[in-house]
Amino acid sequence: MNFLAHFFLSNKIENIVVGNFLGDFVRGNKYKDYPKEIAKGIILHRHIDTFTDQHPIILQTNKRLHADFGKYAPVITDIYYDHFLGVHFDKYKFENQSENDNLTEFSTFIYQTLEKNYDVLPPLAQQVFLRMKQQDWLIHYATLYGMEQSLNGLSNRAKYATHLPESYNFLKQNYSSIEKDFLLFFPDIIQFVHEKLNE
Questions:
Q1: Does the predicted TM-score (pTM) go above 0.70?
Q2: What are residue 55's phi and psi, to 5 degrees?
């Protein structure tokens, strides 16, 4: 799962949002350096990643991508799935979300939450957050333009993977099949996280 999905699965709980974001930046037992509720979000992030990596539908999407993109297939899948969550955002609700929540209001809540907790974030996470807010990643994930920019950004970071820009064309050419994968998968991850949050 990529940023939008991790934020959504945090159920609008402030400390879980912060911890779930930090899950990409905090390694090993360093989560113990954070307050208990933020640490819970970091651990939740890890549970989400483990569940996702082992799920048969995710493995199916990865398989679609593997011949063309090799080891980058799971990373591309994460980005694709954020796109489809953005497209279908109004379809899904957690108990802390109101019926009127939309992607724009949700994104504003996330940016405000991270801004409020900016000093808790390590330097790299601060940099990523500032770019995310400035470029409004969470809204742009829902657009094909945003997908093109995200996938080009992945290509720029993966210095030797010159074929990655083709992942945008792959998405357009296989849009309905990947969308179907997402729609089958996402209710499962919601149920899984609901159970984790209520343990």
A1: yes
A2: -75, 135
